[in-house]
Amino acid sequence: MTGETTTLFRPVGQKELVLIANSGLRKFPPRLIWQPIFYPVLSLDYAIEIARDWNTKDVENGSVGYVTQFCVEADYVAQFPVKCVGSSKHRELWVPAEQLATFNAHIVGKIEVIQTFFGDKSG
């Protein structure tokens, strides 16, 4: 362990943010049965795009999108593949859902909300 960290971002909706807050801003909640991977993203621009353009359209989740930022031990996070899922800015880490608890244990500091976007709550 070198002590170095990697900064990652995760766009979330209201329900996920409540669960993160309930953990003391220290961990992400377990994935749902239909979610085989946890995918933090590598760029702020990509996280903003998801939070603003997708999360705000989810009425059942509060029509709000949050961008979270957090640091993970660099040596640990290097094991996960980076997947490009669109243009070159659409890069994610793919962490298998069953490894999320261990991933959470390697988060350094707290998960921070750095941006918030609001959509139309009427649907």
- What is the CATH fold-level name? ADP-ribosylation fold
The separation of the N and C termini measures: 47 Å
Under the CATH scheme, which class? Alpha Beta
The amount of beta strand, in percent, is 25-35%
Over the alpha carbons, how many angstroms does the gyration radius reach?
Answer: 14 Å
Give the tally of structural domains. Answer: 1
Question: TL;DR?
Answer:
This protein has 123 residues and is an alpha+beta fold.
Describe this structure as you would to a colleague:
The relative contact order is 0.28. With 123 residues, this protein is α+β, with helices and mostly antiparallel strands. It has a three-stranded antiparallel sheet. A two-stranded antiparallel ribbon has the order 2-6. A two-stranded antiparallel sheet has the order 4-5. It has helices spanning 14-22, 44-53, 74-77, 100-105, and strands at residues 5-12, 37-38, 64-73, 82-84, 91-93, 95-96, 107-118. The mean pLDDT is 94. Strand 4 and strand 5 (91-93) form a beta hairpin.
Question: How are the secondary structure elements laid out?
Answer:
Blueprint: E1 5-12, H1 14-22, E2 37-38, H2 44-53, E3 64-73, H3 74-77, E4 82-84, E5 91-93, E6 95-96, H4 100-105, E7 107-118
Antiparallel strand pairs: 1-3, 2-6, 3-7, 4-5
